[in-house]
Amino acid sequence: MGGVCTTTINCTAGYYPNNLGTCSQCYPNCLTCNGGLASNCLACFNGSTLNNGVCIQSCDSASFFDSSTSSCKSCSSIFSNCVSCTSSSCNTCIINYSVVNGICTFTCPNGTYISNQQCLSCPVNCTVCSSSNNCSQCAASTLLVNGSCSSSCPNSTYQNGNNCSACYQTCLTCTNSSSSSCTSCLPPYNYNLNSCIVSCPNSTYSSDSTCQPCSSNCVLCDSSGCTQCSLIYYLISGTCVSSCPDGYFADTASARCLACVPPCSLCRSRIICNACSPPYNLIGTICVGPCSSGQYYDPSLSSCVSCTMSNCGFCNSTSCDACLSTYYSYYSNAAISACVSTCNNIQGTYNDNIAMNCSSCSSNCQNCVNATYCNLCSPSYYLFGASGVNTNECIQFCPLGYFGTLSKICSTCGRNCNVC
Asked: Does the reported pTM lie above 0.90?
């Protein structure tokens, strides 16, 4: 060729013809090649793959090709708990481990949590938790409340999606977290128009922590009946009437029907009588009978006999019907049981100077000025007087913004303080 003789050299596998007319060995990974470099491969031995002139060893899933050594290196030698990888990152981990930022991190399946490299069961109905008492996600049809799963929301919470959220702090039950969404209240609050208040407004009274309406024409009442009527109405036996029945007179000062003083059967006031009970006779506006005050006529003896009860002004053989004019009547079981000069010694009553009775203080009050102003509560109750209201009542728990003192009085917290 061109006047020059050439000779074709056929080299065996793993060798290539060099410029000297002899065969030189290929790079060890090459089956055939055109030079001695690793990048001069033309074909590879079984178990290797040709890639841009380089034979790369085919590695199993648990190893990767290390170009620095031209060999396969196991994933576990550089990545703990790894079952498949590249040279820079793990792709798959063993059970209970997950790939996080290229490495295997211990994790537990839903319904379990990690404790000392162990997967322990979450609480009942909990699908995601961090400990045995701290759930963050519950199973379907159950609700998350304070780290636990429940079939329904407990008191003072409401259902908010799949969670139980806190009601407003005075609510026992509610529909959302606002103060106007209560459906029942915590003690000492009373439910009224979707809110919880300490004292029920006029024309209502507290019953089972709910403000119930008073009877018709009543302004103030309690569970036993009305205590103050609307204008032009008079109070009698817990109800309001437009006119008083026989045996009573309308006292405009107290807006009450007060009983005539026996033996007067019809009257215009305590001292002006219009009719008398037999055997008494009306002389002017006074009832005059056979016996003096503090006595009754005994027909079997045909004489006057002293009343058995001290300080009783009008009586019969079995009971006192009216005390002497300067004494207060103390009733028990709807009958006068004592005539006293003051009611201060009878717990739970006060001097009612209009009716001349020992009238009852408000509920759970031991000593009071009148029916709405208490001075001393029964044990386990606190004296509470709301700001701007001329009443003192007895409640079992002090409301928000107040604290109970050792002397059993609800005292205000500091400015802008709800709990103290």
From this structure: no
CATH class in words for 368-420: mainly beta
Q: What is d(CA 25, CA 8) in angstroms, rounded to the nearest whole number?
A: 17
Distance CA 354, CA 350 (A): 12
* In the chain, where the domains are located: 295-360, 368-420
Task: Say which amino acid occupies 93.
Answer: C
Residue 78, classified by CB atoms within 10 Å of its CB into exposed (0-12), middle (13-18) or buried (19+), is middle
Half-sphere exposure of 211 (CA within 13 A, CB side): 18
Query: Which pairs from 233-240 meet CB under 8 Å and 24+ separation?
Result: 239/215, 240/215, 240/216
- CA distances 284 to 279, 281, 289, Å, are 16, 10, 13
Token readout for 324 is: 């002497």
Report residue 52 as tokens: 């841009």
Six-digit token string for 231: 């204008």
Q: 279: cis peptide before it, omega within 30°? A: yes
65 touches 57 (CB < 8 A):
yes
d(CA 349, CA 365): 9
Cα-based distances in Å from 37 to 21, 53, 60, 220, 277: 18, 9, 26, 109, 141
240, β-bridge pairs: 235
Strand, helix or coil for residue 77:
helix
Cβ-proximal residues to 336 (8 Å cutoff; 6+ apart), any chain: 309, 312, 319, 320, 321, 322, 323, 329, 330
Report d(CA 195, CA 100) in Å as an integer: 51
Hey, what are 267's tokens?
A: 């009257």
What DSSP element (H or E) covers 148? strand 148-150
Q: Pick from 176, 175, 204, 208: which is nearest to 189 by CA?
A: 208
Chain-centroid distance of CA 90 in Å reads 50
Q: What is the largest CA-CA distance in the chain?
A: 182
pLDDT tens for each residue of 179-220:
899 999 998 899 999 999 988 888 999 899 999 999 999 998
The tokens of 229 are what?
């009527």
CA distance 397 to 383: 10
Q: Which tokens is 350 given? A: 């006060």
Q: What is the DSSP letter of 40?
A: G
95-133 pLDDT, tens digit per residue, is 888 888 888 888 888 888 888 878 889 999 999 999 988
- 8 Å CB contact between 1 and 8: no
CB 36 within 8 A of CB 24: yes
